[in-house]
Description:
Elements: H1 3-11, H2 15-30, E1 51-57, E2 70-79, E3 91-96, H3 106-114, H4 121-126, E4 130-141, E5 155-159, H5 164-171, E6 189-196, E7 199-201, E8 206-207, H6 216-225, H7 240-254, H8 261-264, H9 325-342
Antiparallel strand pairs: 1-4, 1-6, 2-3, 2-4, 4-5, 6-7, 6-8
Amino acid sequence: xxxxxxxxxxxxxxxxxxxxxxxxxxxxxxxxxxxxxxxxxxxxxxxxxxxxxxxxxxxxxxxxxxxxxxxxxxxxxxxxxxxxxxxxxxxxxxxxxxxxxxxxxxxxxxxxxxxxxxxxxxxxxxxxxxxxxxxxxxxxxxxxxxxxxxxxxxxxxxxxxxxxxxxxxxxxxxxxxxxxxxxxxxxxxxxxxxxxxxxxxxxxxxxxxxxxxxxxxxxxxxxxxxxxxxxxxxxxxxxxxxxxxxxxxxxxxxxxxxxxxxxxxxxxxxxxxxxxxxxxxxxxxxxxxxxxxxxxxxxxxxxxxxxxxxxxxxxxxxxxxxxxxxxxxxxxxxxxxxxxxxx
Length: 343
């Protein structure tokens, strides 16, 4: 079985290559302001407080991926209810942000301009993209009493921005000589859950200091089941038709409208609406389940939005007094429509 590690090394990016790629991303950043739903996702956000889950990340099956994870970016569109349902409660529809495909997102193109106006910042954050990162690997120490575990012991991990920097910081550490996913000299990662105020806190999560090799049973599982192609768990890339619908839904959401299933149902739905088969999101969030406050994105893991908020506006901001949120929404929508008519 020892040959597995050697074979993977031949197709995996080296640690040096990963570090170079991360450096390139940082340079670009500083220079500019779905598979089916199953229990393969390990719900680390459910571990007890002060408990630790020890995991071992594995490479992506896609040899073209420079990293051993993929980034996912979603935007939540709140609606006041579902059209035609008198007792409908507010719902949230998640749509993909196409910036994860290195393309221009029509929603963020609009929302970025809102941060130039102090009174619109709160509205801007509501519609900003929420990032998460999909990894895969083994759960070596599990503090959870799971009702059932999948036959395939290779689990997926949906990592929030609160944990992701801890993973990346270690990869840049020159004292780490081998990529942590190496089968023979890799490192385990401990996810430790504590609390900070009313939120879960993972700041003490860390890499192991001692290298370890995969066990015979873990190597046998890789042989038997293979590795996941992580990009297959990203949402389908929107085409022109989908992008048009996303823009239309965004405008309706800002306007405080209800969700119109007859117009948008074949593209995007609130989770669970009439047995929606597309309810396949692996994000550990309340997803599109109706809530009493649609403007707040409910997140199961951290109990706070998984945001990657934009930089504060570098241009002078407006000092105009705050107005009623509905009036502001109407004003924003009017601006959007005026721009469209001028095109």
